[in-house]
Amino acid sequence: MSVSEAPTATEHIDVLIVGAGISGIGAAHYLQSEHPQRGYAILETRGALGGTWDLFRYPGIRSDSDLHTFGYAFKPWEEEAIARGDKILAYLHEAAAEDGIDKKVRFHHTVRGAAWSSTEARWTVQVERTDTGERLSLSCKWLFCAGGYYRYDQGYTPHFEGIERFEGLIVHPQHWPEDLDYRGKRVVVIGSGATAVTLVPAMAGTAAHVTMLQRTPTYILPVPATDKIAQLLRKVLGRRRGYAWTRRKNIAQQAAIWRFCQRFPRSARRLIRWVNTRRLPKGYPVEEHFDPPYDPWDQRMCVVPDGDLFEALSNSSASIVTDRIDTFTERGISLSSGRRLEADIIVTATGLNVQALGGIQLTVDGTKVHLPDKVAFKGMMLSGVPNFSFSVGYTNSSWTLKVGLLCEHFCRLLDYMDAHGHTICCPELSDPDMPTRPLLDFEAGYIKRGIDHLPRQGTEEPWLMSMNYQADVKLLREDSVEDENLCFSSPTATPRPARGLQATAHLEP
């Protein structure tokens, strides 16, 4: 073993947060606001904070949720509702700098494994410095995994017959070259999800032509880029109160749309098709290109700010082809219908690779944790894994709404443990034979490909992976921390006064 690989003395930290993206920064804010006496650090594999919003650099990258709910409750968002990636990244940098969180981030630190010891009531975390190759050992009382559920270092590209024959350039959006010049080029974007519907209008007009090649259509809705009601509320009520009421409005609006789609899928389908038809030229084949075989919100619905995709289709700078790929050719793609698409650049907007907990291998008292055998407790902990928390946001609403509630509950849990002198907290299944189902009830391709590598969920609280914000408000913010499925132990700690166990006065949603 070289000197650079030799483990150094173990540094101890109260709470170790893995990931400096939107979830990690949020977790750090709540932790240092509610528990300033606790030391924490954020470990980030990459060399910059921002997570997804620093990683993806493809043209037009933007949110697919309104920023009044995708942003933090504690930091008002004051620009357009559907925002570009650079503005979101600037917002995250500002949030981190305002709280001094940026000084707590350790870049190029990749967690390779974490081992829990019940006798020591702590995690020992093995870390690799990816910039130097140095190996470090850290210990912590709590491990908080805030890295989401997909791989940052590798996007998903399915096997395409003959792909090696193509003489042009093939690009995955997750690895967009900074110097890519597509002016005057023929571009084919393979895919129909949020990335594809963002790329197509962003590249149209600069490229010679952009074709969105989809195997299956997606539900697409135009939304205003600017929320005029939000602007009015901010003007009348002021910056913070206006923002809080805008969040309430948008939370209710998101929930109402989702409930309508779930309860009346046929009506929702007809309404979406009517909206699409109105935004497209007369005679456009809407049923061919905008009529998915599944119900609305079985997969995440795509939004296009100010209808920019429909505008590109209407002015003929872009087009949609719904077909299957037979093979790549030297000059483009040959389709199952016999049609050929010529291209200079092919963009494979074909999705993500799911990776649970950033690929960290957990062990508990010497036994490896097999994630598919574990069940999520309140959507934030794992059965049989002590002093461990993770954050996964909503799939049917703004990601950050869920993360905020999880962080609030985590801080209340720490309060409860302080008050009762506990040092260990572990969810345990009271019924080992409880029926389980996949962690995420979501039909997106990237979820279906990786679902067998994720933990499971139960069929009722607290083992349910809720996607309902109002239900989570009750469970995570208002209900007691105590639960018959949550086991506490207190080998060494001394009780301290409790603070805010029932969290009853939240002005922000």
Total count of helical runs of at least 4 residues: 13
Radius of gyration computed on alpha carbons: 24 Å
Q: Give unreliable regions as ranges.
A: 1-7, 493-508
CATH superfamily of the largest domain: FAD/NAD(P)-binding domain
Q: What is the CATH third-level topology name of the largest domain?
A: FAD/NAD(P)-binding domain
Q: Give the overall shape.
A: globular
Structural class: alpha/beta
CATH architecture title of the largest domain:
3-Layer(bba) Sandwich
Question: What does the largest sheet look like?
Answer: 9 strands, mixed
Number of domains: 2
Beta-strand percentage range: 15-25%
Mean pLDDT: 91
Give the proportion of residues in helices.
Answer: 25-40%
Terminal CA distance reads: 52 Å
**CATH classification class of the largest domain:** Alpha Beta
How many strands appear in the DSSP assignment? 27
Family: Belongs to the FAD-binding monooxygenase family.
Cofactor: FAD
Protein name: Flavin-binding monooxygenase
Pfam families: FMO-like, NAD_binding_8
